[in-house]
Amino acid sequence: MALRKNQNFLSTTEKKQFTDAVIALKAGGSSGNKYDELVNIHEQNMYAGHFGPAFFPWHREFLTKFEQALQSIKNDQSIALPYWNWAVDNPQTPGSRSPFTADFLGTNGQQGSNWQVKDGPFNYDLLDGKGNHQWPLDVRSGTERYPYLRRQFGPSQDPKLSLPTWADVWAALQATPYDVKPWDFTSPSGFRTRAEGDIPFGMHNLVHMWVGGSMVPMTSPNDPVFWLHHCFMDRLWTDWQVLHQDQAQYLPDGGDPNDPTKRQKLNDPMPPWNTPNDTVTPANVLSTWDRGYHYDTDGMLLAGEVLYPGQGIYSASVAVAGKPRYLLLYETDGVLRLYVAGQQNAYWWSDNTPNRNNGKATLESQGNLVIYGPDNKTPVWQSYSWSNTGPCYLVVRPDGYVSILPPQAPPIWTRPTKKP
Ligand code: CU1
Ligand code: CU1
Question: What percent of the chain has pLDDT over 70?
Fold first, then answer.
């Protein structure tokens, strides 16, 4: 089971493991250049995977195929896609941890060099052992003249262009139902529209535009940040599914005879996965667990992991009908609270310190859960729980309790102390 993590707490080794696998896929093994095959699939199936309800399931399958290809080229089942929460880790926010660093995906393109990305492992100028370019853009749409990766971040295109905010994310997560007629880019409401993002809601589309350069045309997987962006979109879909278990998890379901839509219904294969050997419908991909992966925010916080304001953890495992899931949320007011997911008007437990400025919450190796103030250095609250047999982890349990545990040992801290 692959664990997809927030890129903001990947170690240098994990970052390199991921970019090395991406480069290996592009260099191609005995089965050829799988990376460019995927770029082609994305460009050629523009209408199957975009501007309609299949946006989420189509990209879920697309990302899974990519993740499996990375695992197989490196023969390492632990390789998982990281996600980029652009609302929190906006490169323009001081102190944020964006993936655009020289030791990960490379930085912004250079203005004097036609916005070519000149650092990081995807810099065109790098040559492999045989003297070939390490990251050439060989699959290009008609309008792209350049064989090198380009980025032109929002403000250098237009001072007013900015990434979606966490408020935009929550607004999309609260939207219901999943999608509405006519199931296309003119759909006036619903989660899919708000997330995929036609202006003025632009979430997903806006991020492509904001990164600019190679992320704009339909060959956008040429920029590896594509996968981190879509991985976050996929995580948001799982979050929406948890928050709205009373809703149809995908629409249209084909149950309405007055709706002659041509868009994929729940049980329609999504091209190009509509062949006898590989048939994938939206119904096949509704659960990430069935597809072989889950998210770090899905069940537990490991020692060393950090929650930044707005990040939370859901209780573990697949949703069970009629059973609520729980959400431990480090909120933007700097307070940690436990909710029944989807019912955030009343909390079940809180660290009980109102009107605090936010910083970060982290689980330290020996099991102390610590909330830091705005300087990210001064503790403002602690669980005061320790074990010398770490590294510990924190679980949001399916019965609604939050526990901190050392490996193979009973909990050293549990809240709430009694059921309300
Ligand atoms: Cu796409
Ligand atoms: Cu996209």
Answer: 95
